[in-house]
Design goal:
Arc Repressor Mutant, subunit A; 4 strands; alpha+beta; two-stranded antiparallel sheet; single chain; 141 residues; elongated
């Protein structure tokens, strides 16, 4: 798999050129996730179209499309001089954050069920993983 990465504020936007998901959708999803996760704050400027296109090694028209759609969806706003800034609507963020969680969880659950995990086994493994990621090395269950 060929992947291009960009790190901004400890977050990655991944572009997989072999994915069935269009590149602009991958980039849009990455920026949207940065916003709903709180990595990008209200009023924070985004990279210029040219800067982001250069970092991701994509055509600037791709970034124009991404920014246009994010603006239409209410996640960013344009400023005079082609500057784009994050625009946060807390109600929208809360709803979209839940939708993202739900979609990712549905996909994950489908995968672990197909691997033969029982709900109990899956919960135990998830708890172990969360404890490990959170710095807690011991599982209490």
């Amino acid at each position: 798999m060929i992947k291009k990465h960009i790190r901004e504020k400890g977050f990655e936007i991944k572009v997989d050129v072999k994915s069935a998901v269009p590149i602009y959708e991958q980039i849009k999803r990455g920026i949207k996730l940065m916003i709903i996760s709180g990595y990008l704050k209200n009023g924070e400027p985004l990279l210029s179209i040219r800067e982001l296109a250069a970092k991701l090694k994509v055509n600037p028209n791709t970034i124009i499309k991404v920014y246009y759609q994010l603006e239409a969806e209410g996640y960013i706003e344009s400023r005079p001089g082609s500057m784009y800034k994050v625009k946060i609507n807390q109600n929208k963020i809360k709803k979209d954050r839940y939708e993202f969680f739900k979609n990712e969880t549905d996909d994950y659950i489908a995968k672990i069920v197909s691997m033969g995990y029982t709900p109990e086994e899956a919960i135990k493994e998830i708890k172990k993983y969360i404890n490990k990621k959170g710095g807690k090395e011991n599982d209490k269950d």
